Amino acid sequence: METIVMAPAAGRKKADVIRFLDRLSLSFDPKVQVTVLLEEDGELLATGSRDKNLLKCIGVSPERRGEGLAAAVMTVLVQDAIAAGFSHLFLFTTPSNQELFSGLGFYPIAVTGDVLLMENQKNGVRDFVASFAVPDTKGITGAIVANANPFTNGHLYLVETAASQCGTLHLFILSEEQSTFPFEVRMELAQKTAARFPNVFVHPTGEYLISSATFPNYFLKDKSRTAEVNCALDLEVFCKCFAKPLHITRRYVGEEPFCPVTARYNQALRETLPGNGIELITIPRREENGLAVSASQVRRLLAEGKLEEIRPLVPEPTFSYLASLKNSPERNPL
């Protein structure tokens, strides 16, 4: 049996993988960086791919299952990931595959009727959440999850309102690097702005609270359900892995007049959170000159070079950072 590692897959081999996965009702993700193929006499028997620290597009010929081919593919992928500097690995699969991947060193994080999220660190998510330094406080414990791209007066108003109603408020900043501003910048601006509130604690989401930008849908037959399935999994992770150990009983969101995706997500929150003992509080958007303040508005003005028009829309740490970009154009992400 021959093992072929391609970075990335291309040409005839890539076409072979696409056809092979299609027969398994799976699809190939063109974003993957490495693909492993197991062949025997030129016939493709098993394959799997890696996108950074996410393993995906793993499939084995039905006629050859039970022969350890999945383990062989996973071994090569894990070794390749470690060589590339990734030790903490994740994979998405169908719930029916839990036993298979559990036997290969992966542990479940959260599961819904459609998807199972696993990692190769036992108790990884539990230890991650337990690492948050939060003193014992009395009263309601609330949470906000924000991208803060960048942190605006709208975010500040949401935090200020929620903090006034809670004994402890957890502000989670999405760690995923799919935004205009890098995570480190978004995290720093949130920390500096929230420092005025002694009961607000700012945390990263790590790689656990996920977005549709990275959620793989290769195992979904109906690709139109990607956002729905991703949302359900994200809420399962939040409720079971974050809210439960942190005793969060409220989640705060701002009204969403701009983004239909966020509006649908907020609707899913309304339908899901109460069943998990969490109250959803929707706060009206902060307005400036009759218009709701938004991060997209700030990014547009920055791209147009209208720095002074940004000043009333953002807190001082954000404005100072954006102003510094004017003197360092190479740092401007737009």
Task: Explain the overall architecture.
The chain is α/β, with parallel strands linked by helices. The protein has two domains: 2-122, Gcn5-related N-acetyltransferase (GNAT) (Aminopeptidase), CATH 3.40.630; 128-331, Rossmann fold. Helices cover 37% and strands 22% of the residues. The chain has helices at residues 11-23, 69-83, 98-102, 124-130, 153-165, 183-194, 226-246, 260-272, 295-303, 307-310, 316-327, and strands spanning 2-6, 34-40, 43-51, 54-60, 90-93, 107-111, 116-119, 141-146, 168-173, 200-204, 250-254, 279-283, 287-288, 291-292. The strands form three sheets. It has a seven-stranded mixed beta sheet with strand order 1-2-3-4-5-7-6, sandwiched between helices. It has a five-stranded parallel beta sheet with strand order 10-9-8-11-12. Strand 3 (43-51) and strand 4 form a beta hairpin. The longest helix has 21 residues, at 226-246. The relative contact order is 0.10. The model has no long low-confidence stretch (mean pLDDT 91).
Mean pLDDT across all residues, rounded?
A: 91
- The number of helical elements comes to 11
| CATH architectural name of the largest domain | 3-Layer(aba) Sandwich
Radius of gyration: 22 Å
CATH topology of the largest domain: Rossmann fold
The percent range for strand residues is: 15-25%
What CATH first level of the largest domain would be assigned? Alpha Beta
Give the neighbour order of strands across the main sheet.
Answer: 1-2-3-4-5-7-6
Measured distance between first and last alpha carbons: 49 Å
Largest sheet: 7 strands, mixed
The dominant shape is: globular
Q: Determine the structural class based on helices, strands and strand pairing.
A: alpha/beta
Give me the CATH superfamily of the largest domain: HUPs
What count of domains describes the coordinates? Answer: 2
Order of helices and strands: EHEEEHEHEEHEHEHEHEHEEEHHH
Q: What portion of residues is helical? A: 25-40%
Q: Please tally the β strands and state the result.
A: 14
Query: Are there runs of 5+ residues with pLDDT below 50, and where?
Result: none
